[in-house]
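chain below, 81 aa
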Amino acid sequence: MVRPVDTEAKRYIRMTLGDLQEWFVLYGNCFKCDHVGYIDRYRLVHRFGAKQRMKPLEAKLFCKRCGNRHFNGFAVAPMQR
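prediction:
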């Protein structure tokens, strides 16, 4: 039996930097030490372009606390009012 693909996860894989709404904040999350740090998404857009998908950029993330470069990911949250 084939399981249906989670549409939310599928959407995330295809999400580009330009798809982020202005009221969302981008963070990087370390897999090893669970550190969460702010990422300036406008600098990412300037460097990689608005059409760059977010999933491939996860391989470039590294933790500033422990130096881990493996299995890190993005976290997106609404901006606080």
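The chain has three helices and three strands. The beta strands are 24-29, 36-39, 73-78.
thats it, cya
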